[in-house]
Amino acid sequence: MRSTTVSRLRATLSDYLARVKAGEEVLVTERGKAIAKIVPIGRDQVGVPAHLLEMARAGLVRLGSGKLPKGFWKMPRPADPTGAVLKALLEERGQRTPEERHGGRTPAAARAVHAGGPVRRSSTSRRSFRPARSVPGAKNTKSRSIRRWQ
Question: Which domains does the chain have, with CATH numbers?
Fold first, then answer.
């Protein structure tokens, strides 16, 4: 355990906090008397839920470090051709799968049946351009055109 005065702690706070992060305890004194003790927070006090700590003690789970490996997001995803993971997740959330919502069909197939034909985008969802018009009085009508919003 390291001991320091209040004035020295204020002057070099980041150094002492780095030592505390490393697991060391710091005793703060004022006029020779101890007034505070700075100790690192244990893993069980950082915000890990109590039920998760109990499961870790029982050996059912391992508490992670909170850091992902460098290439984690570039790793290939495991194959799930039956969609069991999505079904389990939605069941846990109390939601229905897209196939259940659309009568056993995929959402695109359900839209096609409802629309009476192949799946197509709605023309009202985005603005579209009118054909280009030539500007009156312009010499080269191909280079000068105005496009307007509908």
Answer: 2-42 (3.40.1620.10), 83-115 (no CATH)
Strands in 40-142 per DSSP E: 133-134
Which three-class secondary structure state does DSSP give residue 38?
strand
Q: What is the pTM of this model?
A: 0.33
Q: Are 39 and 24 in contact (CB under 8 A)?
A: no
Q: 126: which 2 tokens? A: 């985005």
**Per-position pLDDT tens, the chain of length 150:** 889 999 999 999 999 999 988 888 999 999 999 999 998 887 555 677 888 888 888 988 888 877 888 898 899 988 888 888 888 888 888 877 766 776 666 666 666 666 555 545 555 555 554 555 555 555 554 544 555 554
